[in-house]
Design goal:
Two copies of one chain form a homodimer. With 150 residues, chain A is mainly beta. Chain A has a six-stranded antiparallel β-sheet with strand order 4-5-6-12-7-10, with no helix packed on it. Chain A has a three-stranded antiparallel β-sheet with strand order 9-8-11. In chain A, a hairpin with a 2-residue loop joins strand 8 and strand 9. The interface between A and B is large, with 45 and 45 residues.
Amino acid sequence: MTPKTHISQTLPFRWQDIPVLAYKEDGGTHFKGITRQVLFDEDDKLGVQLRYFEIAPEGHSTLERHDHAHCVMVVKGRGQALVGSEIHALGTNDLVRVPPNTWHQFRATAGEPLGFLCLVSRERDKPERPGAAALAILRADPQVSSFLRV
Amino acid sequence: MTPKTHISQTLPFRWQDIPVLAYKEDGGTHFKGITRQVLFDEDDKLGVQLRYFEIAPEGHSTLERHDHAHCVMVVKGRGQALVGSEIHALGTNDLVRVPPNTWHQFRATAGEPLGFLCLVSRERDKPERPGAAALAILRADPQVSSFLRV
């Protein structure tokens, strides 16, 4: 089937024939209140996927790192992100770059949803969650320590 | 220099240290009222660029085609796009897929700016503009004919 050339938004941040998916297929308790929608994928032959994630108020993504990079653009709401050892306050249309092998976590801390586009390679490694030693290093910074949700 | 991990929006659809560029460096009269900002590029090692284009009211992009594909997401305003032989009415957050070798043109026809993200391969071929024969074929459809700006 030929991919459609126009995909309308049907409700705010919902698109025609694009399913709202679980954030991660394997479940887990290391994230909270987050959905995933794949906007562009292999049909588009760019070697990347563009996904839309939405974190409900007080929710968060998994604290993790991996070899692949993320390019992120906030398109709804506000929140915060840890990237490496820095915590950024995020507003709509802000950009976030997660370099390879960098601990990161997104949180909807502003009492409103945090919705963002995330660009990744289609071929990518599996995320790694921090072990006790990595957590101890991250927690050495009191601000980071109080930000983390694991 | 290490790329920054957080790039704030400073004014609506303007970003810290991201210049507002001409739509095309070679100038031309085949487009009108359109700017370009490169949000993510080679630093991000994904083989793609994510650009933000904004078309002023009554402006338009070049009518063109090329071997590379575009993945587009409208993030500001409304307008219309020709993709192949179809004219789509575009609203904020709509997605547009421009397949390879497909004539396309974006226009800000709604009395407001049309701003969109456009994802492309970093390595890509040069766009081709229609010659007289291709224009005649496009113009055989009266709706398309009245839409085109060349």
